[in-house]
Amino acid sequence: MLHRTVVLVAVLSLQLLFLNAQSPEAESKRPLCMPNEVYAHCGNKCLEPKCDQTACGACIEKCNPGCYCTHGYARNQEGTCVPYTRDLKCPKPTIITGCTTIVRCIYFA
Question: Which of 28, 59, 63, 107 could share a disulfide with 46, CB 3.0–4.6 Å?
């Protein structure tokens, strides 16, 4: 009797798993990303590089779906992902932040 109950619970659990799996419709509802962006099911806007921002400071981990800049790109003030480089030193490193790099965006004329 116990064996049947365990098997029944396992089968029902698997069925629920398949029912809750993402359908193709849900996948097609994800937003279209802009150029130089990629969609992530679990991303963090706080960790995304931003133009002229020091690469230091506290960031609370969050997992949010959305469009994020691809590797080698940073978000500018207009919200567009543009190429960037990292300088080795911040303008004013401090003991509090321990800052060592700053994001410098590359702008094309």
Answer: 59
Burial state string for 11-32 with b = 16 or more CB within 10 A and e = fewer than 16: eeeeeeeeeeeeeeeeeeeeee
Which residue is listed with tokens 């700053």?
102
CA separation for the pair 17, 82 (Å, rounded): 40
Question: Cα separations (Å) of 72 from 38, 69, 85?
Answer: 12, 8, 8
Cβ–Cβ < 8 Å for 50, 103: yes
Q: What DSSP string runs through 9-47?
A: HHHHHHHHHHHHSPPHHHHHTSPPPPTTEEEEEEE-TTT
Determine the residue type at 27.
Answer: E
**pLDDT over 80 at 50, yes or no:** yes
Residue 102 tokens, joined:
């700053």
